[in-house]
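User: Can you help me understand a structure? I only have the sequence.
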Amino acid sequence: MASEALSIIPGAVLRNLSDKLYEKRKNAALEIEGIVKQLATAGDHDKISAVITMLIGDFTLSAQANHRKGGLIGLAAVTVGLTTEAAQHLEQIVPPVIYSFNDQDSRVRYYACEALYNIAKVVRGDFIIYFNKIFDALCKLSADSDANVQSAAHLLDRLVKDIVTESDQFSIEEFIPLLRERMNVLNPYVRQFLVGWITVLDSVPDIDMLGFLPDFLDGLFNMLSDSSHEIRQQADAALSEFLQEIKNSPNVDYGRMAEILVRRAGSSDEFTRLTSITWINEFVKLGGDQLVPYYADILGAILPCISDQEEKIRVVARETNEELRAIKADPTEGFDIGAIVSIAKRELNGEHEATRIEALHWFSTLLARYRAEFLAYLNDIFDPLLNALSDPSDAVVLLVLEVHACIAGEPHHFHHLVSYLIRTFHNNHVLLEKRGALIVRRLCVLLGAEKVYRKFSTILESEGDLDFASTMVQALNLILLTSTELAELRSLLKKSLVDSCGKDLFESLYSSWSHSPMATISLCLLAQAYNHAVCVIQSLVEEDIHVKFLVQLDKLIRLLETPVFACLRLQLLEPGKHTWLLKTLYGLLMLLPQQSAAFKILRTRLKTVPFGENLKRTSSANPYSQILQVTEDGNRNQDTLNYIAINFQSRLHQFESMQQQHRDHLRNQLQSRKSASALALSQEIRRYEEAHSSISEISRPPSRTSRNIS
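Assistant: Let's start by predicting it. Here is the structure, written out as tokens:
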């Protein structure tokens, strides 16, 4: 075959084809072109094939760079000489040219680009069968280290794009796997090359690039974080065009793309996150039933973005979240409530307040629409919801309480909630002090004040930690006396002596209020059980009058001047009718230090009482000891008749028994402290004696025997 080719191509031409001078190689190629034209005209394709084989074997595969250059020019010349008949020899011509794209010599790679350019101009659409191999080669050449090679590759690339766009033989199905593989390349030149091809192919009406978008969408999003501004712009432009096509297309595979968008929404790059969340926003509006199985994943992407540092991302994320929550999906159609619950639970522990708030809104939405299904997952989320009550954000706590209120429709859940609150307050006194009132008041609004207070009282009655029980009762009592949300509860307590519902509430609270003398007295004042209040005051002993007691008493005296006790103060206008009220107030006055502000406040109030004929002062000159003398008529007041409804003797016994427990507990505490102090003191003395003994041994003079030996 080679000898046959040598007989066809003169030796001088072959020598010039491998010459180091470009002009000689060019002239040799022109002569080969002419010879091939003659052979083609004669229809002697066997000789043409022999020439091609010789050019490949002796030139393009030669170890000499000039031979390889000549061989490439020669193959291009053969193709030009064949013109319309070149297609039948492409199987021989194209592969060695493509192979030369990997040559170590940059000039050879350059001539390979030039050769394939000339071949492509001749055969046009006939070389489409080699497109994937050519595309792969161009992809590498676009990042070539030699600028001339890059330039030649760009020229070839433009020609190939023109050929592909006008060809009806191009197979997008065969091309997409190669494109998907190359989309992961990080080289900026390659990325520009890829985006260029995607844009060109998408512009061809007969090529459905949108149908294959899921295959290379992730790669495009990956380019949005490229360090090159130009590449980011090109990728963004391509994505914007595809998004517009999606809006106008009736058939879109939202599912596969949703997975990609969810992943990219968590990108560390701000622009990538914004673009991803924008796409998700459109998908939620357009996707319909296709997106139902992906709602949980989408929610998992949206919620963190609600707290993004970039305002644009936050705005789009909030809008998307509202759109998603407004969709009423059917669990029987693939809507996974468990997955949504899991996502909301995860984000409830997030570091950003806005995200935690939206997670709670999702809990509320699920409870409202799918209560039975939601409660099936309650064991997984109840504890996290309880822990959220310690959240540093008031807004979060209020929403958590709303969710708990919805769950607490079942009695055992309600009991669990209140028990947990008491346990949490027990372990975290700061939370009780700073957030206790907020939590209790909100629960009263959501679940009913009477129901909440009855449950607190029932649990606290058997509380083992007496100190905490007293503190908790005092906190609840203060909320009861000051919160506008509990106005109805106070009104009911005021009817304790004349209404069975008020009586039941009074007795229910009294059981735990007995942990605190001042809370008990406050309860009696609210219930207008003044006679019993006097008995409670008189039952107090020296051990009960301590600093904490006086602080609570000071608060009560100041509260007596608030609108809550306006009715009580008005009753002082009829001292003859409310003698036990006066005796209660004077009893409190006697417990206060005379120099305290509370003493002065109460004394001033009592000075305004208009004493009548049936009340006499034993010592009118001494305002500090206004002991009331009650006449027979004045003692038969209306309040006394109503005391029959409540067994106050039993209540007093209950109070005294509870207070005795507190006294015993206090004595035990003091005894323990004394024992601990005594033990510490004895240990200190022992250490001192041991140290003193050691010093004595060291400083003792030597004996007479030892001096004699010396």
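Now, to help you interpret it: The mean pLDDT is 87. The chain has 38 helices and two strands. Let me know which part you'd like to focus on.
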